[in-house]
Design brief:
- Helices cover 39% and strands 31% of the residues.
- It is α+β, with helices and mostly antiparallel strands.
- The longest helix is centred in the middle third of the chain and has 29 residues, at 152-180.
């Protein structure tokens, strides 16, 4: 097979050149950079944003390709280049389009680890690094088998991506969780409605939300949509009272209510009052069709869409 392939001399020189540098690590980094460059330039305009994520993908993609060239032509810089390429690969997951849909991130991490752990082959007549003259081996070295030295970087190369992912991911997750949770008012406003009709009641529970005075225990009601008639909201924080009213209020899409108190009449017949400390264990509120004469203390409400009819604002 070897004799049948063309250009045997060129292939021999290429193998010799490839074995004296972290070739496969550089190839993975080049593929990662190319993948990050191709995704924002692809016609998937619906899936990929060409805003800051697209610009970041271009910058990180070019940087990973440059790192691959450094590994190929300046392999003695592999440790510094691999660490920086690893940081860019992990960063690409948050700064670009999920790291090229995760493919670019994984290729970059694998290439960085291989580049960091690569060690040159030392043996008779083989220079330790390209560009370094080969020393005349002693008689014992001529008889010694070819070995790879410095096994330590290999173990560190495997552990480094995991340590970096944990070190970067934990603060990012904490910051995202803190940023995603809004701040509730110190004193929840009062909401009244003559009819509250949820659609697709999903779950109920108890949790704590953040306020300027500390955590506040609330009931959490989740549903697909909800319709409220003769809606009115009044603040009660000790200052000038503000009110917001509407003939009807329709919430739709991932509706979540955070309430410190909730009272009304189920089906207009059975009147009940719920509080975070008054729910059963586990905290479950049975689904219902509608409630009348509802009064609630509302810490927060979130919804994908809010549609009002006859909106009114007032102050006193």
């Amino acid at each position: 097979m070897e004799a049948r392939l063309p250009w045997p001399e060129r292939r021999r020189r290429f193998r010799s050149w490839r074995r004296r540098r972290p070739f496969w690590a550089g190839l993975l980094l080049a593929l990662a950079g190319a993948e990050l460059l191709l995704v924002p330039l692809s016609p998937l305009t619906i899936l990929v944003s060409l805003g800051l994520g697209g610009l970041a993908a271009l910058g990180i993609g070019l940087a990973l390709i440059a790192a691959a060239l450094f590994l190929w032509f300046l392999p003695h810089t592999r440790h510094y280049v691999s660490v920086n390429a690893l940081i860019l690969s992990v960063l690409s997951f948050a700064a670009t389009n999920l790291g090229g849909f995760l493919v670019g991130t994984l290729l970059g991490i694998a290439g960085s680890a291989m580049g960091f752990g690569w060690t040159p082959v030392t043996g008779p007549g083989t220079p330790a690094e390209p560009g370094t003259p080969a020393a005349e081996p002693a008689e014992e070295e001529r008889r010694a088998p070819t070995v790879r030295e410095h096994q330590g970087p290999r173990t560190l190369a495997v552990a480094l991506p995991v340590v970096l992912l944990v070190a970067i991911g934990a603060p990012v997750q904490r910051a995202q969780a803190a940023a995603a949770e809004p701040l509730a008012p110190r004193t929840p406003p009062t909401v009244t409605t003559t009819r509250f009709a949820p659609d697709g009641f999903l779950i109920a529970g108890v949790k704590e939300v953040r306020t300027v005075d500390g955590p506040l225990k609330v009931m959490v009601l989740k549903m697909r949509a909800a319709s409220l008639s003769d809606y009115e909201l009044r603040t009660r924080d000790g200052r000038d009272e503000l009110s917001l009213g509407a003939d009807s209020l329709d919430l739709s899409g991932n509706v979540t209510l955070y309430l410190t108190k909730f009272s009304g009449c189920l089906q207009g017949l059975l009147c009940l009052t719920f509080t975070p400390d008054g729910l059963p264990v586990p905290p479950v509120v049975p689904p219902f069709v509608y409630m009348t004469d509802v009064s609630a203390e509302q810490a927060m409400v979130t919804s994908d869409s809010i549609v009002t009819n006859g909106l009114r604002l007032g102050a006193s």
